[in-house]
Amino acid sequence: MSARHWPDLIKECPRTEKGEKKLTPREPQEVKWIRQMTSQTPSQEFQPVLPDLDGKPLFTTHDSGETLQRRCGRAFQNAYTADRQHLFLEMLYNHHQGISKGISSFYVRQSVWFAFFEPILPSQIASNVLISDPFRSLIDAGHLEELHGIFAVASTSQATAGYVQNSGSQPEKMEALRDVNKHLEELELQNREYFRQLEESRACSTDLQGKISCLQLKIGDEDAKANNMLLNLRSREESLNAEKNQLLVKFTELENKLKYMEAGNDELQRQLAQLRQIMLETQNDAKVRMCL
Q1: What total number of domains does the chain contain?
Q2: Which of 34, 110, 207, 291 has the lowest CB atom count within 10 Å?
Q3: What is the pLDDT of residue 20?
Q4: How far is CA 182 from CA 123, 135, 150, 203, 245, in A?
């Protein structure tokens, strides 16, 4: 109930939407609300928020949904107005959020609730409490009396019983309770289906983990082989580099020898030319002598 009526219980108000007129906090009226919540005959001034039995809260949106700024702190005005008629236990403990792009403001409110209270199953909620009861509260009656000793605090179940007694005839109350039980049974079936799908997902996840482990082993073997091949290639590369260096040394030696031989060949050619010149001169001298 405090989630639906907190602006009346504390001196705070929802945060203002962009472009809207700034809201002003009202003076807290917790005394009036506590009296009405614990009374079996609520006054006409008490205007609790009734649940929207025809509509269901959306957990996800097709757009980006609530931004990080809107998820933290007090709810914004539009989110508070839209979600307050869904802030009842049966709706908060509906775990079938679905999958989409973004999260809704109601999903944020549900997450805040689960941050303080354990997300129990719908079957664990008091199934004999009327779903449309606006006076239901999780406040312990004894603790409430200790905090507000000036009030005669009755238990929440008694307040609910008084509200049901004043809400209609016995057949109508029985029909309402049957509707509630039917709704809770549907929620229980939905949760069973959810957990069945969860178990299937876990089994599938285990199978995938096994396959991933096998793939990781194969990848490890391939990596080891690749590392060995890389080491062999590096060793072969070093060996080839050493052979290359040796060949370069031999090539340098041969090149030097070739240059030396070319120099010797040039000297021999020069000497051969000189010998030919001497032979020609000798032949000419011999001819001259023969003529004389």
Answers
A1: 1
A2: 291
A3: 84
A4: 11, 21, 40, 31, 90
